[in-house]
């Protein structure tokens, strides 16, 4: 599989596993943690989630500028790993839930500081490591394997991501067990409505029933139970963040042991001029054309990430509120769906590489811009499935205990295979867009702007992520089928725009 690829590829992927582990830990539990910790509604939770994920990617621009200015890619990456670990330490420190009177804002600010530290470290790390991988394929020996190399890189970094949600679930449920409780996805909402006095008589009966079930014994004081359950639930999440610190440590060791296998960007070695032949040959007009092409692709992928990264927001809400978390006798947590995407990435990537290699051997392989356009169509089909599967489901406000609604009974919920199918389709779309888009950037970006242009790709992802909260607003306010239909529309419009520019982009890429 790795035959003919530079030997630094595996090492760079292994070094990136810790970042992916932490990323998917956040993807799985961040929104649920914020809601259960602070009792925030879907809209405010969505704003925090979208700003955090936007910050991760927009700060990659800062990381790219720092690395390009200092020409010290390796040092910037190393510092990024350390700062990310510090951020996870801040998130892992338990604080009381519910917060004592007058301290809720302080604890929320502390959480936001922890999230910013993680985002800043990620910004120093992520884009610059991708730039190093791209530089491995600047060598004529490996140039024709650039697309497959980035696909392999993408596959391997997601191995750690498979286990991140499972570890978070395991740690959270273990801590609940030490306090004599079992997991229930709906209980935090009932607990908050009990403590803020908004719970209805009908919901009090439902709360009593669930409290008895997770405690294994009749609960006499529901207010005390609500406080104790929320504290155990959120403390378990705090400890789940701590697992990411271990993953960061492993990545740091792997990175330091393999630094010598990573390329030194042009102009970083002593006595080597910062401008070499390839850069000298590229005139201003060509540089501008390349930059325009990259900006055009950035504009398209904004809407992919706006749709795709709903997996940690509205799709997670859907898993908690509308999905039957049971198959046969096996009961599971809403967070487990976040393992599906990296699982599919790992096991579908070889098939996608094989398919493109077969097409290449026949001279029929689509160009990278065409692959991105196809990926947008595939993403649209995932939300067509969600729209069809959500027809007839009630508005969220009518089933939200904190708004006076009553949670759905299991018989009223949809099959988990709806989300499973959606994640499968979205992953196929991702494999057509994300690794190949990164490859396109590394191929088209002028050599002197490699770091900042990889940061630009991540910056476009940031813009898409900043729009994520719109999904949370729609989820809370309009029928579900219409929410998912919005993502169908933006994906199809992006595909059409990409096809309109296809010949120009293909010409630039050559």
Question: Topology of this protein?
Answer:
Blueprint: H1 8-38, H2 42-70, H3 73-92, H4 104-136, H5 146-178, H6 187-195, H7 201-215, H8 222-258, H9 277-281, H10 284-308, H11 314-321, E1 326-327, E2 330-331, H12 340-361, H13 368-390, H14 416-444, H15 450-466, H16 468-477, H17 480-500, H18 502-509
Antiparallel strand pairs: 1-2
Helix pairs in contact: 1-2, 1-4, 1-5, 1-8, 2-3, 2-4, 2-15, 2-16, 3-4, 3-8, 4-14, 4-15, 5-8, 5-12, 5-14, 6-7, 6-8, 10-14, 10-15, 10-17, 12-14, 13-14, 13-17, 14-15
Any overview of this molecule?
The chain has 510 residues and is mainly α. It has one domain: MFS general substrate transporter like domains (Growth Hormone, Chain: A). Helices cover 74% and strands 1% of the residues. It has 18 helices and 2 strands. A two-stranded antiparallel ribbon has the order 1-2. Helix 4 (104-136) crosses helix 14 and helix 10 runs antiparallel to helix 14. The protein is globular and about 75 Å long. Mean pLDDT is 88; it is low at 270-280.
